[in-house]
Amino acid sequence: MEWKTVTDFHSERINIKRSEFYATAFPVEGERDFREKLKMVSRRDATHNCWAYRIYSTNGILEHSSDDGEPSGTAGRPILGVLKKYDLMNVAIVVTRYFGGVKLGVRGLIEAYSLAAELAVKGSRIRNLSLVKEFEVEVSYSELNNIFRMIETAGLDLVKTTYTEKGVRLLLHGAKIPEGIEVKDVRDVLI
Questions:
Q1: Tens digit of pLDDT for each residue in 98-140?
Q2: What are all long-range contacts of 57-65, with beta carbons under 8 Å and residues at least 24 apart?
Q3: How much of the chain, in percent, has pLDDT values that exceed 70?
Q4: Residues forming a β-bridge with 4
Q5: Which letter, b or e, does each residue of 49-77 get, where b requires 16 or more Cβ atoms within 10 Å of its Cβ?
Q6: What are 20's strand-pairing partners?
Q7: In angstroms, what CA-CA distances link 146 with 28, 139, 142, 162?
Q8: What angle do the packed helices 76-85 and 105-123 form, to 10 degrees?
Q9: Tens of pLDDT, residues 55-65
Q10: Do 26 and 36 form a contact (C-beta atoms < 8 A)?
Q11: Among residues 27, 26, 33, 74, which one has the least CA distance to residue 50?
Q12: What percentage of the chain carries pLDDT values higher than 90?
């Protein structure tokens, strides 16, 4: 599966029958990161702050949404639908509504929240994501040149180097783990 993500916060505003809709799309690294950013993006004086997110985890894809007081299924689910439509992962969208006095009805709300979310996505900078293996290797100082050659030959990305008394701990990313390397803490990550 090919996924994409947004690179930064992006907001769009639309007016539908005197109601103002402010949609903000932004990248998230996990549920805790989402909760912190939700506090920043939500507007306390608004009628509703509806949202959805999709986050990749080793246990599967986490998808959640909230209608925040709108009729069930009229806000959060349509926003989540936009995330799925554009194959977005590790992305959240918050759509804030200021009620303008005219009721939109179920169909109208679904269309309004979908449109606002889609405008935020279309205005965002988007990049492709790759699913790679992240793993740690510990080597002695005498093995360091050999491991660097193997990293280069296998096309691995060196993410972090930590020097210890006994040797070097390397955090690596790659499409697969080369044979002959003893690894620790293997997990799939999106980058």
A1: 999 999 999 999 999 999 999 999 999 999 999 999 999 999 9
A2: 57/30, 58/187, 58/188, 61/89, 62/31
A3: 99
A4: 88, 128
A5: bbbbbbbbeeeeebeebbbbebeeebbbb
A6: 15, 98
A7: 37, 10, 8, 17
A8: 40
A9: 999 889 999 99
A10: no
A11: 74
A12: 85
Check if the beta carbon of residue 137 is closer than 8 Å to that of residue 172. yes
Joined tokens for residue 156:
């691995």
The model carries a pTM of 0.86
Q: What is the 3-state secondary structure (H, E, C) of the chain?
A: CCEEEECCCEEEEEEECCEEEEEEEEECCCHHHHHHHHHHHCCCCCCEEEEEEEEEECCEEEEEEECCCCCCCCCHHHHHHHHHHCCECCEEEEEEEECCCCCCHHHHHHHHHHHHHHHHHHHCCEEEECEEEEEEEEEEHHHHHHHHHHHHHHCCEEEEEEECCCEEEEEEEECCCCCCCCCEEEEEEEC
Greatest alpha-carbon span in the chain: 73
Cα(86)–Cα(127) distance, integer angstroms: 12
What domains are there in the chain, each with its CATH number? 3-128 (3.30.230.30), 130-190 (3.30.70)
Joined tokens for residue 179 = 């044979």
Neighbour tally for 17: CB within 10 Å = 11
